[in-house]
Write a structure and sequence with these properties.
The complex is a heterodimer of chains A (1001) and B (91). With 1001 residues, chain A is an alpha+beta fold. Chain A is built from 24 helices and 50 strands. In chain A, β19, α10 and β20 form a beta-alpha-beta unit. In chain A, α5 packs parallel to α6, α5 packs parallel to α12 and α8 packs parallel to α9. The termini of chain A are far apart. Chain B has a single domain, classed as Folate-binding fold, CATH 3.30.2270. Classes of the chains: A alpha+beta (1001), B mainly beta (91). The interface between A and B is medium-sized, with 24 and 28 residues. Bound molecules: zinc ion. The site of zinc ion has 7 residues of chain B, from loops. Zinc ion (ZN) binds next to loops of chain B.
């Protein structure tokens, strides 16, 4: 029978609802309302994990999201497993399984604990210093580090849960539902403001719910009774939405906040089914009220990390809220009065408080007097110099503090205890405020950073703004709300508030021990095992900036983002370097405030919803004919059409031969199409393309190359003049949107005087490209009315035609070098026209081919693909396409840059053809090209951009860019690969039909 | 995440917009007359001010119109938005 650590049933714990759960494989029981932490503590389980570097046993320290130690893996070995979850935030449910992280083989016997023994050799920057040399050993070090460190295991399988995103717009967002947040939300809603109140906990009310009833009164009631009535009244407010279990993760500019709403994590497995697990709220608030409260500080002393050492407020909360005693003999260690309130609370519940150790010389507040009267021993002007107990605290040693607080004197006293509550004062939770761009000021009196300059319409109220006493909280809240919300009155102005006051203050960032600091372990960052000693070492080694010290010591870099120890780190740096804390500044708090799951971040945008995709009107036909697809931008394009179990290579070789020997057909619908109209259209094209457009006759087509202003090739395509003031431009598939954007930019900002209108019509037309020596015969069957002779319908010209009743535009243009027609029809007719072409082409064995064959055929002709053979650093001259650059035109986009000294260099990378000496070897695209093998370092001349085995030439061909390649025709070069070196010869990039006879074949 | 007041559509989320770099850099009327250095000045040199900066923005997922913005880069405050072709305000 385990000892019972439940002291008194709490209204938040349902003792009729017993829940079983497993921790590290062992079954325990708790009640509905428990967190994993409270249920474990109720079972006297304090040891829950190991620290990151030294693998020291660690216990539960806090009761909230700031928990640094009790980080667990939930439901290990299932597909819903989640690492790095704070035991203090997990609401238990039947069937919950959790386990300790960062310990191997188990939490009670951890091999990494040896790090603790050798810790004198593991100072700050240890990993940087040790594992960087020799670099060839890195792989071995990495194995060691990964095996012994690591925070949890990520799930291996697909996340089966459902996540959601929701946009929320409100007049007022209130973050935090303590007394300040509740009053703020209530008064905003009462004044007809659409208000959203969120809190990360499952209950509203915050710490006021458990304030000492004797010393904290509002309107002659205990503050908690009064607050409970206020919470009741929230229910009737129409303008108010309240969300619990909702944690604001990020506060961006313009009052844009992201919050995670946890919907099912606290439910039993059967109740989680088919429900949204977590929802990311994207909140845009006209005004934001931060009432995020304050976090209690630990105290920094030797061995302040043993299981059983907790925050004083947490010890109190476990007793008050969960009815759990964190020990049988409890000691408090404090620098302020709040520990006395905790001690009184425990005392009144019958939990033994052994002693209070206070670093102050005295305090005469009512709370302290009341505790003294109860007979509990107070050690004034004392500090803890050491603690003992490996897996659980069993005693503390205390000594008297010197006047200056730098040393200890006198006799060492040992106090036996199994739990220690630390009360180091309060740190306003200004994380969200600073995320929003707010500037802090340091309050020297209270040693806190407080909001100073608000970057948007927001205020901080309550303890996150530095008000720690209920009377000043309420007084200031009333004034601030009236001003901020522009309301005449609040419903709590002039109410009578009484509370105890605290006068005595003493703060020592690093408490002394009787041992030298080198022999102590005063932890500042529990999760990352950074001690005060490490911080001092960093300063000795010359680090001064707080941001550098943080990275060197890893202080504040854990999943808890240094919520507990950050202030102490700053304080120790300031004291050691003898600077003022206000001048030192603070590190940046970055989102998220608490970690978010990937699922929450991506929401529904998973699998096929990850990105939109576009399909051509002929897509169904491709699927029916077993096409393999490739992604080109957002398009799904038919890649090749394997028949009878062909490999990709076999299919592409067959398709390529068929297209040149008889007829092939390609779905070219994805090419970007821009309709250009207006009286200045010709002039516009003159300015955006490198070649001249004024003289292009109506009904003719022209290939154009578009540059960036820096002279580099940006896009290419064929543009057809449909009428006097009407053109249709085609762009590359991937470049369509950017080209339109760029053209719009020039039209709107540089040349607003031009009368030109651009319309994207990519989706409006479907394009079937029929090519090959028999394509004319096929066309003749489809559009018999059109006279297809070279005289009437020559290469690079266009005709309007009808296929049955369907209007179509036919361009005689070619990307393969074959006689070729592109038939454009309204998208909805795309599939039927495609099928007509296939039907008409049957007798000629018309062969559908995909993008791979298209690439191969154009490479045989040496035609470039922008984005494959170019990479934004190639000019038309580099591509040996000087012929398309008009010398006569006064200006076009990028022209001037072609005469810059850099673009005119002879040794720029230039496009060439490559032939392998062994024609059966196909080069790898991206392979590096060299001319000398015996150099050191070897000089890279360029790389292969396109490479195929050409079935029509029966040999391997490649395009490449090579420094000075233009003058290398016939030169032998080498391509060193991992296992062999391939010999190649530079050739003309046009491999097939150099005379261009087939276009008119 | 800004809220941007498109001069043609009104207030919209930043997601709908695309930033287009420094404003009021006019493309030279006669590029061929310029020296390499003068051309490079136009082509490459952009300010990156901490403080008040003149910028071009495009309502890319909306009306597709370009406009000018005066923004304080230190706190992202948008001080002014005005149409293309309109004169920049004097400080
Ligand atoms: Zn707009």
């Amino acid at each position: 029978m385990p000892e019972n650590f439940r002291v008194k049933s709490s209204e938040f714990i349902d003792e009729t609802n017993r829940i079983s759960f497993k921790f590290n494989g062992k079954t325990y029981y708790g009640f509905r309302g428990d967190t994993l932490a409270s249920a474990l503590l109720a079972n006297n389980v304090h040891l829950v994990g190991r620290s990151f570097k030294y693998h020291r046993p660690r216990g539960i320290m806090t009761s909230g999201s700031e928990e640094p130690n009790a980080i667990v893996q939930v439901n290990e070995n299932t597909d819903t497993t989640e690492p790095n979850v704070r035991a203090t935030e997990i609401e238990i449910y039947e069937g919950l399984e959790a386990s300790s992280q960062n310990c191997w083989p188990n939490v009670n016997f951890d091999i990494g604990g040896i790090n603790n023994l050798i810790s004198p050799f593991l100072p700050a920057g240890f990993y940087y210093k040790t594992f960087m040399w020799p670099s060839s050993f890195w792989e071995k070090y990495e194995y060691f580090i990964r095996h012994s460190a690591g925070l949890g295991k990520s799930p291996k399988k697909k996340d089966p849960d459902i996540y959601d995103h929701r946009y929320v717009h409100c007049d007022v967002l209130v973050v935090g539902a303590g007394i300040s947040g509740i009053l703020a939300a209530k008064n905003a809603a009462k004044n007809n403001l659409k208000t959203l109140l969120v809190d990360e906990k499952n209950e509203l009310g915050g710490s006021t719910l458990f304030q000492n009833e004797e010393f904290n009164k509002i309107e002659n009631q205990s503050s908690s009774e009064w607050l409970k009535k206020q919470i009741q009244e929230l229910k009737d407010l129409k303008n108010l939405e309240v969300k619990v279990r909702t944690s604001v993760a990020a506060y961006h500019g313009y009052n844009y906040l992201l919050a995670r709403e946890n919907l099912t994590d606290h439910l039993e497995k059967k109740d989680k089914q088919n429900k949204v697990r977590q929802r990311l709220l994207k909140i845009r608030a006209k005004k934001v009220i931060l009432a995020t409260g304050a976090l209690e500080r630990p105290l920094i002393f030797n061995n302040n990390d043993r299981p059983g050492i907790m925050l004083s407020s947490a010890v109190k909360k476990y007793a008050d809220f969960y009815g759990v005693a964190c020990g049988k003999k409890i000691v408090f260690f404090t620098n302020n009065d709040s520990a006395y309130e905790s001690a009184l609370c425990l005392h009144n519940k019958g939990i033994k408080v052994e002693a209070i150790i206070d670093i102050r010389e005295n305090s005469d507040s009512k709370t302290v007097k009341s505790l003294e009267a109860s007979g509990i021993k107070i050690h004034w002007s004392h500090t803890i110099v050491d603690t003992h107990g490996y897996k659980r605290l069993n005693n503390v040693s205390i000594m008297k503090l010197s006047k200056d607080g730098m040393t200890v004197t006198g006799k060492k006293i040992k106090i036996s205890c199994d739990c220690l509550g630390m009360a180091g004062g309060w740190t306003p939770a200004v994380h969200l405020f600073t995320q929003s761009g707010g500037k802090l000021r340091f309050d020297e009196d209270n040693k806190v950073f407080l909001p100073s300059k608000y970057p948007s319409k927001q205020i901080s109220v309550g303890s996150c703004s530095g008000d720690f006493k209920i009377n000043s909280i309420i007084k200031n809240l009333d004034l601030n709300l009236k001003d901020f919300l522009e309301i005449k009155k609040t419903d709590f102005e002039n109410i009578d508030v009484k509370c105890d006051s605290e006068k005595s203050k003493r703060n020592i960032w690093l408490l002394p021990s009787d041992k030298s600091i080198g022999k102590t372990k005063p932890f500042v960052d529990y999760q990352n095992d950074a001690t005060a000693k490490d911080i001092k070492l960093a300063l000795r080694e010359g680090f001064r900036s707080i941001e550098h010290v943080k990275r060197y010591t890893t202080t504040g870099m854990g999943t808890d983002q240094g919520k507990l120890g950050n202030m102490h780190a700053l304080g120790i740096i300031a004291d050691t370097a003898d600077v003022k804390m206000g001048e030192l500044g603070t590190t940046t708090f970055r989102p998220p405030y608490t970690p978010l799951t990937f699922g929450t971040i991506v929401g529904r945008n998973v699998g096929e919803f990850f990105d939109i995709f576009r399909r051509t009107p002929m897509n169904d036909w491709h699927i029916e004919h077993k096409a393999e697809f490739e992604n080109v931008g957002q398009w799904k394009r038919a890649w090749y059409y394997p028949v009878n179990g062909e490999t990709m290579h076999e299919a592409v070789q067959r398709e390529s031969k068929a297209a040149r020997e008889s007829a092939g057909i390609l779905d070219a619908s994805t090419l970007g199409k821009i309709d250009i109209q207006g009286s200045d259209s010709s002039e516009f094209l003159n300015r955006v393309y490198t070649n001249a457009w004024s003289k292009l006759a109506i009904g003719n087509c022209r290939y154009g190359l578009m540059l960036n202003e820096d002279g580099m090739v940006y896009d290419d395509g064929v543009t057809t003049r449909l009428g006097e003031n009407h053109y249709i431009m085609t762009t590359t598939t991937g470049g369509a949107a950017n080209v339109l954007g760029k053209l719009e930019d020039y039209l709107q900002t540089e040349w607003p005087e031009l009368d030109v209108y651009l319309t994207s019509v990519t989706d409006h037309y479907a394009t079937a490209s029929v090519c090959g020596p028999n394509s004319k015969k096929i066309l003749n069957k489809i559009v018999p009315d059109i006279e297809l002779s070279d005289e009437n319908f020559p290469h690079m010209s266009f005709k309007e035609a009808k296929i049955g009743n369907i209007n179509c535009r036919i361009m005689r243009i070619s990307f393969t070098g074959e006689l070729s027609y592109e038939i454009n029809v309204q998208a909805s007719y795309g599939k039927s026209v495609w099928e007509k072409c296939i039907e008409a082409g049957k007798e000629f064995n018309i062969t559908p081919y995909g993008t791979e064959t298209m690439h191969l055929l154009r490479a045989e002709k040496g035609f470039i693909i922008v984005g494959q053979d170019t990479d934004g650093t190639m000019t038309p001259v580099d591509l040996q396409m000087d012929w398309i650059v008009s010398k006569k035109k006064y200006d076009f986009i990028g022209k001037r840059s072609l005469y810059r000294s850099d673009t005119m260099r002879e040794d720029r990378k230039q496009l060439i053809g490559l032939l392998t000496d062994d024609p059966s070897i196909v080069l790898e695209e991206g392979a590096q090209i060299v001319s000398e093998l015996n150099q050191n370092p070897i000089q890279m001349l360029g790389h292969v951009t396109s490479s195929y085995f050409s079935p029509n030439l029966n040999k391997s061909i490649a395009l490449a860019v090579v420094k000075g390649g233009k003058d290398m025709l016939g030169k032998k070069l080498y391509i060193p690969m991992e296992n062999k070196t391939i010999n190649v010869t530079v050739s003309n990039p046009v491999f097939f039909d150099k005379e261009n006879l087939r276009i008119n074949a | 995440m800004f809220i941007i007041n498109c001069p043609y559509c009104g207030e919209r989320d930043q997601q709908e917009f695309k930033a287009g770099g420094e404003a009021h850099i006019e493309r030279p009327k006669q590029p061929t007359e310029l020296s390499d250095d003068e051309w490079a000045e136009y082509l490459f040199m952009r300010k990156n001010i901490k403080g008040v900066q003149f910028e071009r923005w495009n309502h890319a997922h909306g009306c597709r119109k370009w406009f000018n913005m005066v923004r304080d880069t230190s706190n992202d405050e948008i001080k002014l938005i005005y149409k293309m072709g309109e004169k920049p305000p004097v400080e």
